[in-house]
């Protein structure tokens, strides 16, 4: 069992998530998504596993800075995915995926606990 964590090492929430993974003795791999951005297809798969839409995982300030001003509607889904893949700084973080496919935005203890339990 393993967990993949997409993180930005400068982010305090990401560092806290790594500390939780370490404390739990979890087996995980790190993807520095700013250095190794997800493709639109990868991001689409993650968003689907989260049960969200692409705009739900966009960081509002960073999306505005990137000029991502798109309608929040299904017809714009692919354009959102492409925009977020092109400007990964606008993606919420950290995102963790357990080997069973359980995926969370790990910004709180409950979300982290769900993915660690499935790891």
UniProtKB/TrEMBL annotation:
Signal peptide: none annotated. It comes from the Bacteria. InterPro entries: Arsenate_reductase-like, Thioredoxin-like_sf. Pfam families: ArsC. SUPFAM superfamilies: Thioredoxin-like. PROSITE patterns: ARSC. Coiled coil: none annotated. Belongs to the ArsC family. This is ArsC/Spx/MgsR family protein. It comes from Nocardioides oceani. The lineage of its organism: Bacteria, Bacillati, Actinomycetota, Actinomycetes, Propionibacteriales.
């Amino acid at each position: 069992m393993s967990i993949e964590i997409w993180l930005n090492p400068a982010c305090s929430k990401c560092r806290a998530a790594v500390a939780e993974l370490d404390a739990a003795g979890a087996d995980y791999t790190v993807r520095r998504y700013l250095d190794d951005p997800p493709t639109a297809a990868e991001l689409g798969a993650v968003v689907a596993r989260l049960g969200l839409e692409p705009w739900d995982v966009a960081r509002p300030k960073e999306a505005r800075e990137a000029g991502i001003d798109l309608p929040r509607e299904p017809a714009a889904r692919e354009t959102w995915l492409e925009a977020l893949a092109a400007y990964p700084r606008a993606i919420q973080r950290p995102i963790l995926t357990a080997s069973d496919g359980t995926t969370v935005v790990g910004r709180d203890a409950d979300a982290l606990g769900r993915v660690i339990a499935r790891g």
